[in-house]
Design goal:
Elements lengths: L11 E2 L4 E4 L5 H8 L2 H4 L13 H9 L6 E7 L10 E8 L3 E8 L8 H12 L6 E7 L3 H9 L3 E10 L4 E11 L1
Parallel strand pairs: 5-6
Antiparallel strand pairs: 1-2, 2-3, 3-4, 4-5, 6-8, 7-8
Helix pairs in contact: 1-3, 4-5
Length: about 180
Amino acid sequence: MKLQKIVNQPVIETERFDLRPLCRSDLGLIEMYAADPRVAMTTPTIPHPLPPGVIEAFITRSMAEPRDEDVWVMDGTKTDWPEVMGVISLTRLDRNQSEVGYWVAPAFWNTHLASDAVQALVDTNPLSNDAMFAAVYHDNPASAKVLTNAGFVYLGDAETYCLARDAAVPTWTYSRKL
């Protein structure tokens, strides 16, 4: 019998779901969702097609101590929704800041899941940051709306490389003082 390592990271409760640290048992659902090109194309870090071992390595990194990124699963089991509906993370930056990243499985698009998850991170500020940043691709205005609804302010345009698109993609960058 092998015991699963407990990650030193808080569980963040919302009315509809919990943000909880990733665990090894999340592998199958995260892999299934991340393999969907509609998800991969909205993130800079998920390749498409999804090579074997990528999500397993992601989970291993997210459970490591020390780590640069805290990752939570959007877990809806408390309201009879699936155990994994999406992922949200905070990547540590210098000067007590972090970058928010998130994706939601297509089955849960247009349910305000991402908005609630981002707002939960802003409200709890689990890393005690002074500010949070986020960037979204120009062709994903729904994610931009998620950020503005959570009080993020538009900073400007930039570009971020997207593995799934194999190209630099124009982004809108946002910040939120905490």
